[in-house]
Amino acid sequence: MKIFRADETPFFSDASVTVGTFDGVHCGHRKVLQKLSDVAKSTGGHSVVFTFWPHPRILLGKNDMKLLNTLEEKMKVMSTVGIDAVVIADFNSDFARITSYDFVKNYLVEKCRAKNIIVGHDHHFGKMREGKYETLGNLSKEFGFNLYQVGAENVGSQTVSSTKIRREIESGNIAAANAMLGYAYFFSGKVVEGFRLGKNLGFPTANIGQFEPYKQIPGNGVYAVTAKVSGNIFKGMMNIGVKPTVVRDSHVCTIEVHLFDFNKDIYGHNIEIKVFNRIRDEVKFDCVDVLRSQLEKDKSESLSVLNNVSLD
Hints:
The chain is an alpha/beta fold and 312 residues long. The protein has helices spanning 27-43, 56-59, 71-78, 93-96, 100-111, 133-143, 162-170, 174-181, 197-200, 288-306; strands spanning 2-5, 15-19, 47-53, 85-90, 114-119, 146-149, 154-155, 158-159, 185-192, 206-209, 221-229, 232-241, 254-259, 270-280. α7 (162-170) runs antiparallel to α8 (174-181).
């Protein structure tokens, strides 16, 4: 998969193009991307994704907006679905003012050489989100492209959407989020100095900091996770919260990961965490001995989860 910026002039031939933010590259997105790939193969042209960075809602004043993917993460997931190219537009105030007509003409038709355009069931585009499927239908006659619309993807009784996945992650319902994503939710950060309280309990932890501020972090609780450090993957468990048993009256939320059968110093290392399941709420225990006993149970339950997942 090749990656281009929108101010570059890549040469595409009879391209099949889809457009969107694709935050999460979830099951619904991949349904669109699969149709994109199928159409491109049947017509012999390139499959092209046109996307934006940063997320338009961040630029438009949604400063509390949390995202499922950083740009790097989005490209990483998208590279697994068999797309030829991604074109990334810098979403700034000028770009936000582009009308739906000019966007289709200048970017999809002239720059991407779109012969086929594939969109999802609820797609809007252009200034003030004025463009919709009917808009594309009218423009297809003027510019001579074929138009395809892909229906919604359901998991259970829910229609998959990035907004719903964010809510599930924020509430700690990782199993539901992962079902809609189609993969285990992940985030990255750097291992930073902590208070070494876990070591005294027999459960030394890596404290995770310096992750992207707009990244959606799971709600407080204990989770079964894997961690990728220096190219190696380890099973573990993660606590997100204020550590009420060992830190009095703390309101500072921390992310700590205990890796099983691991005793290396990894301060300053980057670490990628995949989150598979929520084990329990964060609870204040009567004493550290009760906490230690609970951590043993958490480890056992985490291993029962992780023994049934792929560690790639």
